[in-house]
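Let's practice the habit of predicting before peeking. Look at the sequence and jot down your guess about where helices and strands might fall. Then scroll down.
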Amino acid sequence: MKTIAQLTYIPLETHNPREKVQDLLEHLAQFDVQIEVGYLATTIIGHPDVVFEAIQELYKIMAVESSKFRFHVELLSPEAG
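Done guessing? Here is the structure:
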């Protein structure tokens, strides 16, 4: 089974939000997940344990590096395989 999560990170107090988003994408690349970067959200697909670990790690990073942010996580129904 593979879990699908759509992630949207919005840094609220920065002059360069693209840089903050790019930093998180680089952290996300360390996980064994398929990554599809879209205009408004990033989709990750992988084993449920890895997807949830990635979400938790990203949240920890955001909490340390950003004073205010929004992090939207949408979970889609799992895929077989």
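How did you do? The first strand starts at residue 2 and ends at 11.
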